[in-house]
Amino acid sequence: MIEFEGAEVRYPGGVRALQGVDLRIDDGELIVVVGLSGAGKSTLIRAINGLVPLTSGRVTVGERTLPGLDRRALRELRAQVGMIFQSFNLVSRSTVLNNVLMGRLHHVPLWRSLSGLYRAQDRELAMEALELVEIVEKAYVRAGNLSGGQQQRVGIARALAQQPSVLLADEPVASLDPPTSHVVMRYLQQINRELGITTLINLHFLDLARAYADRVIGLRDGRLVYDGPAAQADEAVFEEIYGRSLTADDVLEGQGGL
Amino acid sequence: MTRASVRGSGARAAAQVRPERPFARFRWTVTVVLLALLAWSTWSVDATWGRLLQAPGRAVGFVGTLVETASLEPLGVALEAMWESIAIAWIATLLGAALSFPLVFLAAANLTRSRVRQPVRQVLNVFRAIPEIVLAIALIPFLGLGPVTGAVAMGISSIGTLGKLSAEIVESIDDGPLQAVEASGGGRLERLRWAVLPQAMPEIAAFWLYRFEINIRVSAVLGVIGIGGIGGFIAQAVERNVFERIGLGLLVVILATMLVDAISSRLRRRLIEGPSPAAQARRERASTGGGPTGDDAA
Description:
The structure holds two protein chains of two kinds. Chain A is of the alpha/beta class. Chain A is about 35% helix and about 25% strand. In chain A, the strands form two sheets. Chain A has a six-stranded mixed β-sheet, sandwiched between helices. The termini of chain B are far apart. Chain B has a domain at about 70-275: Orthogonal Bundle (MetI-like fold), CATH 1.10.3720. Chain B contains twelve helices and no strands. The interface of A and B includes residues 49, 79, 89 and 155 of A.
């Protein structure tokens, strides 16, 4: 379970990215967080693994509560929370397998991770993660040689190799074309269903949000302005969240029409 | 068919204000300063510039004599001396690489906070500022005059450039993977190993090779003061006026340097660009054709 209590984040420049957010997420939910850019979606997600520290309030993930974790406990929390990034964040010169093995860092002794002498079972786990997103045949290819969609699948595999109980995805499809976006979203949905991993996905496109989420959370100017089942999140709700009428840019199917 | 204009209807253009062309002050300042420096240095060094005009003629005569008198008889000795110069340069490069490596990460702005970084950078600057030949002479009382002195002098001197430029390579890496390691619970060392090194290492290694090329030249020069190698061979020949040895020595230096440069630059390119597409495809076929390489874990 993840719980935000009066969570606030104020950036050094004075920008208030999160303001008084109270939110409870149960295990196994698939949540899509929507909002305009700058609404605080990224901040919300990064508060969960402590990449962005709260300036007041609390976030509880499982039995750990932020802030107040020492370095070691913070690293344990992060190991338990997998993260997927908009720009994939793979090392393009390393092989796909080595990128995925990054997910095992916390689970092996330091000498093993530094020497690269991973145990057979860690390699097996990495391979299984690659199989789950159906890209295992690229295991020994340099990550930079893959297409964007393939790289994002490797990013998902890397997060899965952590054997996480929570998966965070920060705009995972924003760098991808519409068909590839659906492929990636389907993998995320399958993983949520099959492995029961609590999943939070930041998205901009309302049709994607409605198609894949169980529950939609809307943010505007750092405040929670909508929280409800995806089925009820109709266009009026999105206009409310965005604070303006919808345009073609807000739907994935409206993209790349040329 | 060419169109005369891109004006369109002109309606949009009318609504906009064109900016004034900015005055390129920086560019002008640089140009003026450079020209002034050139004029000043030309007059202040008190050189007899006239000699430059006579030089080509003399050079042709000199090279002619060298070629006429060159003899292949001392070739064995010359090659041995060249080999020694190269070996000294190689040891010096490895020494410099090894000593500079830990400093690289302490000097990189994206990894180390400025309280630590600034002093490290200053240390690197000091190493960079001392010429090899000065270092070598300073080391003679401790190490005597020989290959070790040369290697240590060049090694120490290499720390500065290798450290500073490698730190710049590290600073230019993509920080996405750093964030990814952090998000998966990795610590400092793991960030270095899995996010920094894979990105920066090929370029750093390529730079080591480049420094090796430079060190070969430096090593030949230091030979003149007596650390051994081809420099000593040539210096002795000049001292004793043995023309046939001078020509041969120069020839060996030039050819050997060119050869090493050629090999080294191919290696560097391979390091930076990675495997050629053909090699990558071969590898891919091999790895998928043979099935996932076996870990027999349960």
